[in-house]
């Protein structure tokens, strides 16, 4: 029976102490917590590596060289489709879902070239996936070479990347610290403002009594009676 009022009293005292803390302490705490969380994320998350291979579209003698650019744009959209990735799964043993998630293709509006990039936590696997997708894309495109009069040729193979492309622990620490400080700053702006001494209500001015008339003055009233 007596524990509940005591706990409530302690809780109210603790809340009162927290509200008395300066604003910069909340910002510092949020920045510290965010930096620690970002640093832990960067240290616990394994680094990722990206390898890129290139294939180029070449027009045959029976085609206009300018048509190679249009076919390169089309083949860039086909590079990550199931028809190409299924062939890569057979040759590399990597599941199609992993390939769809970690392989991307990009084209250039000025050159008939397709860049195939693959990302993995292992540098050798990243280069293997990029080269396998490029070869599979070239095989798929060259089966229709007689009708399109354009063939795909592997321009540059992907090598094993040396440096990771993922953010380092230092970068994630800075990002986490910035996010923590920003959230705490927004919380301080959104909280209700505590009343200050200058905000106390001004007491109402004392009412001034109305001037007394001659009938209300005792001395004058007596003189009138004597007359």
Give structural notes.
With 227 residues, the protein is α+β, with helices and mostly antiparallel strands. It is built from nine helices and four strands. A hairpin with a 5-residue loop joins strand 2 and strand 3.
Assess the beta-strand content as a share of residues: 5-15%
Instruction: Give the overall shape.
Output: elongated
The total count of helices amounts to: 9
Q: Give the tally of β-strands.
A: 4
In whole angstroms, the N-to-C terminal distance is: 81 Å
What's the helix-strand series? Answer: HHEHHHEEHHEHH
Structural class: alpha+beta
**How confident overall, as mean pLDDT?**
76
Are there runs of 5+ residues with pLDDT below 50, and where? Answer: none
Helix content: 40-55%
Radius of gyration: 39 Å
The strands making up the biggest β-sheet line up spatially as: 2-3-1-4
Biggest sheet descriptor: 4 strands, antiparallel
What topology emerges from the helices and strands here?
Layout: H1 3-19, H2 23-44, E1 49-59, H3 67-78, H4 82-92, H5 96-102, E2 103-107, E3 113-120, H6 123-142, H7 145-148, E4 150-156, H8 169-190, H9 218-226
Antiparallel strand pairs: 1-3, 1-4, 2-3
Helix pairs in contact: 2-8, 4-6
Quick gist of this model?
By secondary structure, the chain is an alpha+beta fold. It has helices at about 5-20, 25-45, 65-80, 80-90, 95-100, 125-140, 145-150, 170-190, 220-225, and strands at about 50-60, 105, 115-120, 150-155.
């Amino acid at each position: 029976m007596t524990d509940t009022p005591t706990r409530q009293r302690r809780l109210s005292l603790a809340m009162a102490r927290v509200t008395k803390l300066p604003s910069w302490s909340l910002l510092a705490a949020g920045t510290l917590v965010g930096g620690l969380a970002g640093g832990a994320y960067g240290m616990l998350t394994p680094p990722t590596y990206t390898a890129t291979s290139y294939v180029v579209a070449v027009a045959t003698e029976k085609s206009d060289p300018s048509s190679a650019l249009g076919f390169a744009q089309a083949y860039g959209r086909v590079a990550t489709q199931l028809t190409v990735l299924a062939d890569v799964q057979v040759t590399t043993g990597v599941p199609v879902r992993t390939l769809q998630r970690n392989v991307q293709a990009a084209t250039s509006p000025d050159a008939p070239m397709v860049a195939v990039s693959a990302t993995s936590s292992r540098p050798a696997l990243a280069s293997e996936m990029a080269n396998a997708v490029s070869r599979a894309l070239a095989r798929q495109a060259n089966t229709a070479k007689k009708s399109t009069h354009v063939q795909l040729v592997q321009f540059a193979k992907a090598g094993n990347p040396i440096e990771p492309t993922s953010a380092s622990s230092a970068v994630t620490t800075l990002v986490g610290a910035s996010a923590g400080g920003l959230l705490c700053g927004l919380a301080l702006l959104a909280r209700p403002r505590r009343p200050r001494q200058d905000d106390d209500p001004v007491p109402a001015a004392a009412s001034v009594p109305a001037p007394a008339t001659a009938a209300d003055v005792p001395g004058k009233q007596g003189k009138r009676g004597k007359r």
